[in-house]
Structure formats: C-alpha cells, structure tokens
Amino acid sequence: MRYQITGKQIDIGEALQTHVRTELGSTLDKYAGRPTDATVIFSKSAHEYVCEAIVHLSTGLTTQARGHSTEIYAALDQCVEKMDKQLRRYKRRLKDHHKERSQPVELSGASSYILAASGESEDSEPENLQPIIVAEMETNIPSISVGEAVMQMEIAGAPVLVFRNEGNKNVNVVYMREDGNIGWIDPASS
C-alpha cells in the first residue's frame, strides 16, 4: 500500500510517519483487505492539530475520516478510530463485494467544474446565462453496482454520487433525499 503523509505548514517526522503506517495499516488490514493508497494530511487549526485521512480501496470504495486534538498523535488516533468505526459498520458489505470482485474497480476520467455564484437577488433576472468557471478539476467515475454506490456515498458522507452502473454501463446518480431516503437516477438507454 502506498502512503502519502504530508503536513500543511507542519514538519512531519519519521516517528509520526511510522505511527501512521502502523495504526492505519492495522485498521485497514482488519476490514478492507486490499487498500491501494492512503493520503494523510496533518494541519494546525488555532491550538488544535487536525488529521485528515483518505483511503482508496481496490473495491472502488473511498473512505475518509478526520480527527482533531491538542496533541498530533491524539488527532491521528481519533481519525483512525473514526475510520475503524466506518469500516466496521460496512464490514459485511465490504467483504461480500471483495469476494465478488477479482479486479479493482474500473475508473473513467471526467472533468469537474466549480461555477461562481450569481451574486444577484432571486427576483432579478441574470444579465448573462453563461456561468463563470471558477475552477476545473479532474475526477474519476467508478464502474460499480447500485449497492456499492449507495455504500460509497454513505461512507464518504456525500449528498450525491455519480457512477457508471455495472449492470447496464450507463452513467447513474444516487443522492440523499430530504426525507432521509436515497434517490437513484437511471437514465433510459436509447
């Protein structure tokens, strides 16, 4: 597994990097089986240290957790504990999908854009219907089942997830509805 351990305006020593590999590695070995890479970022917010971990699994699942404390090691331990709780919650589903899938999830590249807010009141009409692009990024669209997409969305805490449905190869969307249920958009194939 590849680890990318960095600090935002903080020097990360070898002892902390070893501790990250040991603690995070043992948690991932318990539940995940074949993690591919982990990104751990340490930063400081006022008097607290913040540890944010993002782990990509070979099943296509991306899990992330965040911990904060006045001590940097305690922030890491809190982050790992949250990730452990997430993975434990989905352990059965992770193991089921892990057995069914012999190859890592196929990812398709896509462009992602951030558009500027209009800044106008709701009553006035916009001068121009062309949005202003603030940022352009690359993103990946996983080829997974609907069940895996729902699990991915719940673990990431995201309100929406775009994915390629393994069943029909169409681009689908799952989203969290205001009533607490999950919506699924499956466009009709032409």
UniProtKB/TrEMBL annotation:
Lineage summary: Bacteria, Pseudomonadati, Pseudomonadota, Alphaproteobacteria, Rhodobacterales
Recorded superkingdom: Bacteria
Name of the protein in its database record: Ribosome hibernation promoting factor
Keyword Coiled coil: yes
Annotated compartments: Cytoplasm
Family matches, as PANTHER family: 30S RIBOSOMAL PROTEIN
Free-text function comment from the UniProt entry: Required for dimerization of active 70S ribosomes into 100S ribosomes in stationary phase; 100S ribosomes are translationally inactive and sometimes present during exponential growth.
Binding partners and assembly: Associates exclusively with 100S ribosomes, which are dimers of 70S ribosomes. Interacts with 100S ribosomes.
Stretches assigned to the Sigma 54 modulation/S30EA ribosomal protein C-terminal domain: 130-183
Organism: Litoreibacter albidus
InterPro entries: HPF/YfiA_ribosome-assoc, HPF_long/plastid, RHF-like, RHF/RaiA, Ribosom_S30AE_C, Ribosom_S30AE_C_sf
Coiled-coil region(s): 73-100
The entry's keywords: Coiled coil, Cytoplasm, Ribonucleoprotein, Ribosomal protein, Translation regulation
Swiss-Prot/TrEMBL GO biological process terms: negative regulation of translational elongation
Protein family: Belongs to the HPF/YfiA ribosome-associated protein family. Long HPF subfamily.
GO cellular component: cytosolic small ribosomal subunit
One Gene Ontology MF term: ribosomal small subunit binding
GN (gene name): hpf
